[in-house]
Amino acid sequence: MTYITFPNLSPEIFSISLFGITFALRWYALAYIAGLLIGWRLVLRALRAPGLWADGAPLSSEQLDRLLTWIIFGVVLGGRLGFVLFYHPAWYIMHPGDILKVWEGGMSFHGGFLGVVAAALIFCKREKIPLLPMADLLALAAPAGLLLGRIANFINAELWGRQ
Q: Does some domain include residue 75?
């Protein structure tokens, strides 16, 4: 059988120890950060393109900045809660303090997706922004984050094929 060996990449880009505490930057965290920033930038460019919006842009750049905060909380909280509820609920019922230990790993795509949807719905209701234009903007932003997240999955050796 012919196959390509999987490169042995460390999930950590680098780590720093300060006062006995080690802080590590992981590829997965970098993928989240870069995906969110790239998505934010794409949406900002779309909002500034007057030809895209018959009735004007659905939200201002200031609202977009606030939305980014909501999206960050939605993806992180939703991703973590999705992992806890979908994959290991019995463990976390017995060890509820471990739910907060995000540095030990454990995020789920579908939980993050549901968290983003919930955050966007709440934001739209609070800011009185129509849902369909917001969905268009989220659909524009999502592919960059999904691509980078998938690459980080491979670096973490989470998506190997079968032999």
A: yes
